[in-house]
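Exercise 7.
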Amino acid sequence: MSNKNKNFSRISIRKQKMKTNRKKLLLYIGIPLSVVVITVLSYGLHLYTTAKDAANESFEKVGRENEKSDLRSESVDPIEDNVSVLIIGVDDSENRGFNEKSRSDTLILATFNKESGSIKLLSIPRDSYVNVPDHGYTKINNAHFFGGPKKAINTVERLMNVPVDYYVRLNFEAFIEVVNSLGGIHYDVPFEIVEMDSQDNKNAIHLFPGLQELNGEEALAMARTRKYDNDIERGKRQQEIIKSIVKEAASASSILKLDDLITAVGNNMKTNLSFSEMKSFISYGINTNLSLSSVSLEGTGGKMNDGLWYYQINEQSRSELEKELRAHLDLSISDVNSSEFSSESNEVNESTIN
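Solution. The predicted structure, written as tokens, is:
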């Protein structure tokens, strides 16, 4: 065999080995990659199914005509429109025995703006002295006791003149399980606190000042405590804790915790958001430039003639926030009509507060 043929044969053999090695390499790489892809797709499908089942289980209409706010001329779609969500936190634990007749412990009105990718959170003090439709002036936390989410929504709309498109009603068990399913949250505790836990065990929670990781019970105690400052500061703490939960839930390390998170929420939540509507809020969660800001109602507190402590909302503060939230929802400011709150409630408050 000539040298030319020998060289050709060697080159052919070398090429064949290279092809074989490439095939082996692709096989070695392809098998684990395929497993990863199949696992991710399967997990994604599982999460989708779990979330859909949880959403369907928790869905509950408000009971309004056409299921839209009276402050809206037409129904909204969170996929395309700016919308608002009223977050209602309640304590309906078995040891309290309230069942559905519970007062709201937390009321947070969240407005979502699609174009700017921003969210505003307004905490409404639970002791705010307001006019609850059909029940007169009382603390705003009584609204849920009188008529569940529908009455709470109507009261907030009457107070702020801002439409409430959706509601999410969560009990304390959901809050605890959400935080625990994330492995805890990081929070800068501002002062030492000693509080009861969700089962009313006295002095069960003891926290010292400083940045630390809080579990569900500790985060709940921090969000609920009222004896160390006031209702406004309490609302601010709740907003900061919500931000910490959102930040932790959106982190890459929480991907594999989503199953527990969905289950925790689904078992302890009622909402008039359908599954398809819930999915539209994902755009806010994956927005790396998401703006999440907090606003609060200024006011003063004191006892009234009935001996109970109430929070009197400052009308100028309320009016400014009304305009701010309506603008965030891209609603005309010219539609604002605050006379029902400003004239009547201030007159009642000033004549009855000691």
